[in-house]
Specification:
- By secondary structure, this protein is mostly beta strands.
- The chain has two domains: 54 residues, no CATH class; 80 residues, Beta Barrel (OB fold (Dihydrolipoamide Acetyltransferase, E2P)).
- The protein contains one helix and eight strands.
- The strands form two sheets. A five-stranded mixed beta barrel has the order 4-5-6-8-7.
- The N and C termini lie far apart (54 Å).
- The mean pLDDT is 85.
- Bound molecules: zinc ion (ZN).
Length: 173
């Protein structure tokens, strides 16, 4: 290709009034804007998967297994992704796994996590089940992590009373 391209007419942009900002959220979650709150709401009123968080609060990482065909899904579901049955049981998952891949968040951290940069995130293959989970990896600086190393699953509480899981690498190598 050579030569200058002919100038194309600029598309005419429609204009519209910008809607007023949404009111600030109040209550337990404080004034954190909802759209920037990346952890899920966990109560019975917010999700049909509240049991997942209840169990996680007790230190149990779990998911759903289909009663009909035994499919273990991740993340937990309200219906089986294979046969669409709604009859599911909660099953505990292994608390250990292997780091399949990882990366580091060096900037642009989610709201409230700016002070924690840099931090590691990774994909972990849980031991004994065909599931690969994404999550934070803690325990050592990200520069000292290695693909293939063992990690442990742990739950932790957020300041607003929610719970989530993360992976912990061994303290030293
Ligand atoms: Zn099924």
């Amino acid at each position: 290709m050579s030569g200058a391209r002919p100038a194309r007419p600029r598309p005419r942009l429609e204009t519209a009034a910008v809607p007023p900002p949404a009111p600030e959220r109040t209550g337990d979650a404080g004034a954190v804007p909802f759209l920037l709150d990346f952890l899920p709401l966990q109560g019975e009123r917010d999700t049909r998967l509240a049991r997942f968080y209840e169990r996680l609060k007790a230190g149990r990482l779990s998911t759903t297994r289909c009663r009909r065909d035994g499919t273990i899904a991740w993340p937990p579901r309200t219906a089986c992704p294979r046969c669409h049955a709604a009859e599911l049981d909660w099953v505990d998952l292994p608390s250990t796994g292997t780091l399949y891949a990882f990366s580091a968040v060096l900037g642009g951290a989610p709201l409230g996590m700016e002070a924690e940069v840099p931090f590691a995130v990774g994909l972990v293959d849980l031991d004994g089940v065909p599931l690969r989970l994404f999550g934070r990896v803690v325990g050592r600086p990200w520069t000292e992590l290695a693909v293939g190393e063992p990690v442990a699953v742990e739950s932790y509480s957020t300041p607003d009373g929610r719970v989530y899981y993360r992976f912990r690498a061994g303290a030293s190598r």
